[in-house]
């Protein structure tokens, strides 16, 4: 099962993708998490990505596409995967379509998690992230058991550098300009499904499992 999560920054793609990955036993591949772990480790890729991410801009396609295609061709992806944060531009989507069709494959589901911009900024200021394992929390809606500490791996939780309100506004603008057109792209391919991302996390997950089937 090959799944793409679409939706604005903060819509809940990561939250839902993690649960999908657990339920269907497929890898959760988040390009944002891959970039953040490279930044944390100080790699060349990380240093390059950081310049763009801190401004709320997209990392260039020539960096992102190759990285993602390498990842989905690894052995653990044989049964499928859930992509979170990729594709984000039409050229990324076209590269993915081509790489898959060269192997006689295609995306099965593109799930758009729909949340209006006005709900997003509040969510982001309350988000806390684990840069070690990628787990995500919210101070009100999904708090960790112990304040400031990741339930999964025990590392310290942080406010992401790009979650400051002014950077969130920029990310939303970039989303509308460059990523929203993918909704039509996948609608035309007949694989688009939308869920109301303003509902609570459990209800959103319920809607997604209805789409994907038990
Ligand atoms: P990325 O890490 O992908 O960030 P994003 O798309 O901006 O999305 P977020 O991770 O901010 O939000 P989310 O939808 O995952 O929401 P979450 O589940 O955390 O990318 C970061 C940057 O990397 C980009 O800006 C770009 O620079 C670069 N990048 C990444 N991929 C790229 C690509 N393909 N091409 C180029 N550049 C790329 O939820 C948000 C908060 O809300 C959490 O606190 C959560 O607990 C809470 N929450 C979730 N669901 C609910 C709910 N139903 N009710 C209440 N609260 C909820
Ligand atoms: Mg995310």
From TrEMBL:
Annotated source species: Clostridium symbiosum (strain WAL-14163)
Leading EC class:
transferase
The protein depicted here goes by the name Adenylate kinase
Q: What is its main location?
A: cytoplasm
Positions annotated to bind Zn(2+): 130, 133, 150, 153
Region spans: NMP: 30-59
Q: Which Pfam families match?
A: ADK (PF00406), ADK_lid (PF05191)
Q: What is the lineage of its organism?
A: Bacteria, Bacillati, Bacillota, Clostridia, Lachnospirales
Question: InterPro entries per the record?
Answer: Adenyl_kin_sub, Adenylat/UMP-CMP_kin, Adenylat_kinase_CS, Adenylate_kinase_lid-dom, P-loop_NTPase
Q: Where does ATP bind?
A: 10-15, 127, 136-137, 199
User: In what residue span(s) does the Adenylate kinase active site lid domain sit?
Assistant: 127-162
GO biological process terms, semicolon-separated: AMP salvage
> Which SUPFAM superfamilies does the entry mention?
P-loop containing nucleoside triphosphate hydrolases (SSF52540)
